[in-house]
Here is the input.
Amino acid sequence: MNKKSIILVGGGGHCLSAIDVILATEEYEITGIVDKPEKLGDNIMGYKYIATDNELPELVAQNHSFLVTVGQLTNNDLRVHLFNLLKSLHARMATIISPLAYVSAFSKIGLGTLVMHKSLINAGTVIGENNIINTMALVEHNCVVGNHCHISTGTVINGDVVVEDNCFIGSRTVIRNGLLIRQNTITGAGAVVVKDTESNAVYMGNPARKKI
Here is the structure.
């Protein structure tokens, strides 16, 4: 099988995990990583830093696929910027789904989203663009996850939940069914969310309360 060329935009810890998932799919050949000038010539797991952001237009013209592999710990400004930059250049954005994940045939996964090992996305769920669905996350039936979100490791999102854009759902958060998680919500690790959230707010604890 001829593998497609993919370039990863952003090196670091999340890039390591992304490489592992990409290799497991056996669909892509990793051509290299785009990052800061000082990293050029170095490598991650044998994959070289080959260019900086300034060279993205030239790389896009070479018809590679791309995935943003900058991590998201509460602040996702850089991920959003890079994704929007690539889209403005008409880059071919990859959607990567681990073969160890379960994604229902009756769900939809948007461009640039990475679905990691042992995560589960159930029927009727729609996942937007440029999201991280991290290891062992569960997104139940008929949920909607917007764009530029990170659903962290071991999170449980029960049925009929709407997660708006730019949310960071911390590891092992549990969200009760039918809730609205408004844009720019952050939940701390282990939070148990039992009420709709407000925009631009941080929630922690069991039950989760807004951090003042």
Notes: The mean pLDDT is 96.
